[in-house]
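ok so i was messing around last nite and threw this chain in just to see what happens. nothing serious, just curious
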Amino acid sequence: MEGNPLGDVSDADLLARHVAGDPDAFGELVRRHRDRLWAVALRTLGDREEAADAVQDALVSAFRAAHTFRGQSAVTTWLHRITVNACLDRARKAASRRTASIPDEENFENLLEPHESAEGPAERDELQRELVAALSTLPPEQRAALVLVDMQGYPVAEAAEVLDVPAGTIKSRCARGRARLLPLLTHLRARGGDSPDRGGGRNRAEGTSVTETESEKDGGGRQ
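result:
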């Protein structure tokens, strides 16, 4: 690419160039992955400021720890793991101070990725509001598993890599989380039943999602 000399360089090579002293390499990694890291952080924490701080913490950590990357997973998996850990740290600290508050009204429109937020109909915003409010009642580890598998569309095996736990742990966390959410979200099935599926995106994970309608709405269209 003429306008972007690093556009065709692989993630792993960018990280290696960063470690070697290339001043532009890490910025290209951030450009490629920031939107998805932001989406995971926002859905996990349910608060824009907390999510922004978590992503910033994660990117600073990744910048400093790049020399420790050994290539045992994809760079994107490594970045997601650091981001989710930053989110879980913040969620645990918030829980130790007080019961996590539900995000305020003005923040809900930002729970979708930036390029989607202006397009979502009012009904979808309402469904998203109720889903995130319900997710905020879960323990952080269950919430993170459900965000990755049911909302971001990660296969169980890849979510397990991101969270650095066995696949069976992801399955059990998702199952327990879904069981806790079901009474809170059953009414969304009927309301969302006629909404069109956006389609596309990552492969869907096995098993029942948070709710069928919300999984269809939020699992697709990822970069």
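not much to say yet. The two ends are 19 Å apart (CA to CA).
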